[in-house]
User: Which sequence fits this backbone?
């Protein structure tokens, strides 16, 4: 079964992922792609503690995720893949053409970012990366929880998201 | 200050999604007049790094020894565990509820860690399911 959701979320594993998406999708595994987390046993333990029994967590670098995606896709269970920023998802998508849809789940305020939605703030260079990804045929929508309306990238960047 | 005039120094943080923390602390205050023992925080609008920064600052500001979080799998709990690495004396109670917090604010004569464990036991024990007997003896399992 292919991964259900490729999500960019600066909180990585948290309530919206584990409960908000996890329960309706019946998620059974999470692939957390982050080079720093993949290099730290302590960070991995931290995120494992946040996950209820019955959900497995895989920690990958961009390189190992690109190699492992085909295997994850053969898993009979439902899974979600997380990165904490656009740059990481962009690097992964460049190596993994099977990624055809990306979910913007949470990119919060920091200096240089402009608000697009309550839960999406983007810097100019991040907007450009998203446009490039979309130009490669990847569908990008913002949606924090399943019950929310998905906001297409064009609407998000064109200010038609409110 | 409580209704009896007792000065209540903040001793713990209550952190949650949306208005959970302000709501539950307001309930503690309405019931006991001791809401001042607890400082509520929301993660609304905060990214992962900001949540950690906000929590670190709040712990330092009040000298908190206890953090109550709403969701074991939530970003607050993960942030609290990060702060706990820097401050091993910190106690983190996950899945906090009103009965747990009511108990905590009255535990004034013991160490915060003891009070936190007592409160967690109280909160766990308060969960109950009342009624719900099947009408007509049906057992389909669906509502």
Assistant:
């Amino acid at each position: 079964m292919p991964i259900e959701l490729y999500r960019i979320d600066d909180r990585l594993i948290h309530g919206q992922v584990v409960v908000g998406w996890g329960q309706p999708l019946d998620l059974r595994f999470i692939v957390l792609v982050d080079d720093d987390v993949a290099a730290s046993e302590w960070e991995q333990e931290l995120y494992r503690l946040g996950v209820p029994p019955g959900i497995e967590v895989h920690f990958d670098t961009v390189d190992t995720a690109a190699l492992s995606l085909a295997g994850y896709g053969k898993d009979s269970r439902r899974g979600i893949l997380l990165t904490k920023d656009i740059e990481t998802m962009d690097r992964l998508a460049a190596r993994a053409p099977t990624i055809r849809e990306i979910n913007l789940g949470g990119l919060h305020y920091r200096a240089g970012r402009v608000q697009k939605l309550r839960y999406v703030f983007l810097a100019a260079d991040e907007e450009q990366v998203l446009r490039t990804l979309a130009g490669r045929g990847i569908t990008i929508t913002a949606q924090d929880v399943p019950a929310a309306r998905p906001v297409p990238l064009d609407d998000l960047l064109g200010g038609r998201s409110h | 200050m409580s209704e009896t005039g007792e000065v209540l120094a903040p001793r713990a943080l209550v952190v949650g999604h949306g208005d959970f923390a302000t709501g539950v602390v307001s309930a503690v205050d309405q019931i006991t007049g001791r809401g001042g023992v607890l400082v509520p925080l929301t993660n609304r609008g905060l990214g992962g790094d900001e949540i950690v920064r906000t929590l670190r600052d709040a712990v330092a500001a009040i000298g908190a020894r206890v953090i109550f979080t709403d969701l074991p799998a939530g970003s607050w709990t993960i942030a609290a565990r990060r702060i706990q690495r820097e401050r091993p004396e910190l106690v983190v109670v996950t899945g906090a509820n009103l009965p747990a917090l009511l108990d905590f604010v009255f535990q004034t004569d013991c160490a915060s860690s003891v009070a936190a464990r007592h409160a967690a036991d109280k909160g766990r024990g308060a969960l109950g399911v009342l009624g719900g007997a099947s009408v007509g003896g049906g057992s389909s399992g669906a509502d």
Observations:
- The CA atoms of residues 76 and 98 of chain B lie 18 Å apart.
- Chain B touches chain A at residues 17, 45-51, 71-75, 77-78, 81-82, 85 (CB under 8 Å).
